[in-house]
Amino acid sequence: MSVRIDIPGLRPESVAVVPSPLAELGMALHALSEPGHHPGLQGWATGVTARMEPHLADRMCEADFLWRTTFSDLFLPYAALPGAVPGGTLMDELDQLDKLSDEQFVDAALEFTCALSYGVEAPALLSDPAARRRALEVAASRGPQQVRFAQRLLDDPASVRAWLRRFLTDCAEAFFDETWSRLRHQLAADARHKTELLRRKGLAEALAAVSPAVTLDGAGARITVDKLTDGHARVAADGLLLVPTSLGRPHLMVLHRYGWQPVLHYPVGSPQLASPASVEELTLRMAALSHPVRMRLCRHLARSACTTSELAQVHGLSAPEVSRHLGVLKKAGLVTTRRRGRYVLHQLDVTVVARLGSDFLEGILR
């Protein structure tokens, strides 16, 4: 399984390596919402959370599906704007976000809620009644708060856009400006290094430096990103963007949304992960993960809690088949279950999985 990016005739000068403050803020919100994904950032997350005003923490929960699962493509708005690259400041990139059409904004904001086909052209949620109904039905499985936000977004996208800009600006003042002042030098240095590799040694060497999971084929016509998901994109005249992140490990993101410029959002630095499991735990848990279907289920359950029916629809399986696989994972202590109203939600325990070792954890969260 992999995400493939076709790059026929791509020139080195059409590849840009640029840090993005808005993408880093999105990753900061993700790390604060899912600290188990980022063991090396627990000290930073604890410090930020302790200083955060309660009203800002409440607002962070109001639309956390935009960053809890991973983070929304809204944090990479330049990919939707022809010829654009990340801005020099957070305000520049919020201005870029304002340039997205309402259709682009809503479709990207409800990407995870609606479980739409990501890399192909799909009906616009604002103009297609069936897609709109589907969005609200899936939002219902995530609780009333997400239903309210999705309804508001579909009915009045302008007010949500204004709310999001105010929220991100307040986050910058509360904690992110200080964090960005420390991180931007490391990211700028990494961008210069990758750009120099591009100039001196070519795209294959630069991609290898991004991650061992990113490779260029022998003909120089296709980039392959080794991930537990399938996807396909094609680089157009705008070229390819590489965006480094200091807060993102172990996530290696590939934006391959239909009609948007492809983006590789890759981590720099290598914080320490948790200790490995005992032999007995490792034997039991790796046996539970030996089936390829359960590996794919883990990828979804690592990002957000899902119902059995959601997993069945996404993976093309019957609900009883999914239940059997979930039973094996739960018996091994890898999956937790909680009830929300009439829905039963399952989620991967990433703290337990971290003890299986960095290779497995990075693979499913990549």
Q: Report the C-alpha radius of gyration, rounded.
A: 20 Å
Quickly count the domains.
2
Overall pLDDT score: 86
Bin the strand percentage. 5-15%
Class based on secondary structure composition and strand pairing: alpha/beta
Tally of DSSP helical segments: 16
- Give the overall shape, derived from the CA principal axes: globular
* Run of helices and strands: EEHHHHHHHHHHEEEEEEHHHHEEHH
Quaternary structure type: single chain
What is the topology, as strand order, of the major beta sheet?
3-4-1-5
Low-confidence stretches: 271-277
Distance between the termini: 12 Å
How can the largest sheet be summarized? 4 strands, mixed
Q: Tell me the helix content.
A: 40-55%
A few lines on this structure:
Helices cover 51% and strands 13% of the residues.
Key descriptive features of the protein:
single chain; Arc Repressor Mutant, subunit A; 2 domains; 4-stranded mixed β-sheet; 16 helices; globular
Task: Detail the topology: elements first, then pairings.
Layout: E1 2-6, E2 15-17, H1 21-33, H2 42-51, H3 54-62, H4 90-98, H5 102-109, H6 111-114, H7 129-140, H8 144-155, H9 157-201, H10 203-210, E3 214-216, E4 222-226, E5 231-234, E6 240-245, E7 253-255, E8 263-267, H11 279-288, H12 292-303, H13 308-315, H14 319-331, E9 335-340, E10 343-348, H15 350-354, H16 358-365
Helix pairs in contact: 1-9, 4-9, 7-8, 8-9, 9-10, 13-14
